[in-house]
């Protein structure tokens, strides 16, 4: 092997629930710094793929390799410490803590300070500093001391991303990051995601083709548990098989929306 290892690599990954094989031999190589959107019809296996990568499910067979090291079968927290962080939707936010406190929790958790109180105290200054930086990155300085429960929906999603990147992971998984947002919130949010994940490797599961084409360097099309295409947005858009299996109507929608 030569050169830098891929940020993430899936090798003949398979997952069955009972007798049904849901993920059916997925191979994928994601280079460091690449932004990849995973698209596909409902029930194709996109969330399952995310769950396999982030450690929520162990694969039935195959490998998940992060920066050259196998992480399949490891616990989610171990995978997180190894440098991969997944957004857990708004449910991961503490509603009765302020924006700043939420970010600081994210930092401390990622550093493992929850385990010993002495380490916690010595790490607090660093954590405060890092939380201030994150606050600026997600553009919520003015909401610093507002309780998370009182944020708008879009602000909560920004906070969720702040918590996701708090530990400095180099590979970030975002689950439908703009779901439920208005058109204008969505386009602002795409810019924010690009900014805060600059230089990192990003994987998103996404249904909104406007977001996919605005965000992704590459698109992985999952149909019935297999990746049927993995290429640039232009190439995927032009791919006959993808058109037939999935994309035709979605691209027409996105184009009609001016993307
Ligand atoms: N824990 C589970 N046990 C049994 N079957 C499951 C489990 N999780 C997912 N499945 C099945 O796996 C298939 C793929 O589901 P998955 O949620 O990964 O699809 P998806 O592409 O993310 O769909 P959507 O776009 O609707 O979110 C579905 O048929 C689903 O019912």
What does this 3D model show about the protein?
The chain is an alpha/beta fold and 259 residues long. The protein has a domain of 143 residues: P-loop containing nucleotide triphosphate hydrolases (Rossmann fold). It has nine helices and ten strands. The protein has a six-stranded mixed sheet with strand order 6-7-8-3-9-10, sandwiched between helices. Strands 2-1-4-5 form a four-stranded antiparallel sheet, with helices on one face. Helix 5 runs parallel beside helix 6. The longest helix has 21 residues. The chain is globular and about 50 Å long. The structure holds adenosine-5'-triphosphate (ATP). The site of adenosine-5'-triphosphate has 10 residues, from helix 1.
What are the SSEs and their pairings?
Elements: E1 8-17, E2 20-30, E3 35-39, H1 46-54, E4 61-66, E5 69-70, H2 76-81, E6 84-86, H3 99-111, H4 117-137, H5 153-165, E7 171-175, H6 183-196, E8 201-205, H7 209-215, E9 218-223, E10 226-231, H8 233-238, H9 240-256
Helix pairs in contact: 3-4, 3-5, 5-6
The structure holds adenosine-5'-triphosphate.
Rg, rounded, reads: 19 Å
CATH topology (level 3) name of the domain at 1-83 and 174-180 and 207-259: Rossmann fold
Count of distinct strands: 10
Query: CATH homologous superfamily name of the domain at 1-83 and 174-180 and 207-259?
Result: P-loop containing nucleotide triphosphate hydrolases
**Count of DSSP helices?**
9
Q: From the 3D coordinates, which CATH architecture of the domain at 1-83 and 174-180 and 207-259 would you assign?
A: 3-Layer(aba) Sandwich
- Structural class, by secondary structure, is alpha/beta
Fraction of helical residues: 40-55%
Instruction: Give the distance, in angstroms, between the N- and C-terminal Cα atoms.
Output: 40 Å
State the low-pLDDT regions, or none: none
Q: Let me know the average pLDDT.
A: 89
Protein name: ABC transporter ATP-binding protein
Pfam family, one: BCA_ABC_TP_C
Domain ABC transporter: 8-249
Organism: Variovorax terrae
């Amino acid at each position: 092997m030569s050169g830098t290892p891929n940020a993430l690599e899936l090798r003949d990954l398979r997952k069955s629930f009972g007798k049904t094989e849901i993920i059916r031999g997925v191979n994928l190589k994601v280079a460091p710094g690449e932004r990849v959107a995973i698209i596909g019809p409902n029930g194709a296996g996109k969330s399952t793929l995310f769950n396999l990568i982030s450690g929520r499910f162990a694969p039935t067979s195959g490998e998940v390799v992060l920066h050259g090291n196998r992480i399949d079968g490891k616990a989610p927290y171990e995978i997180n410490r190894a440098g991969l962080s997944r957004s857990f939707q708004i449910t991961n936010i503490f509603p009765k803590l302020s924006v700043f406190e939420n970010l600081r929790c994210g930092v401390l958790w990622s550093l493992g300070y929850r385990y010993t109180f002495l380490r916690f105290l010595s790490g607090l200054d660093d954590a405060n500093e890092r939380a201030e930086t994150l606050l600026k990155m997600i553009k919520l300085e003015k909401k610093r001391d507002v309780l998370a429960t009182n944020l708008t929906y879009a602000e909560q999603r920004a906070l969720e991303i702040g918590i996701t990147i708090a530990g400095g992971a180099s590979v970030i998984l975002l689950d439908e990051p703009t779901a439920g947002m208005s058109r204008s919130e969505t386009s602002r949010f795409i810019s924010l995601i690009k900014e805060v994940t600059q230089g990192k490797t990003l994987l998103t599961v996404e249904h909104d083709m406007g977001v996919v084409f605005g965000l992704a360097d590459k698109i992985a099309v999952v149909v019935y548990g297999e990746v049927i295409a993995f290429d640039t947005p232009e190439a995927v858009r032009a791919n006959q098989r993808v058109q037939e299996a999935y994309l035709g109507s979605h691209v027409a929608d996105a184009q009609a929306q001016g993307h």
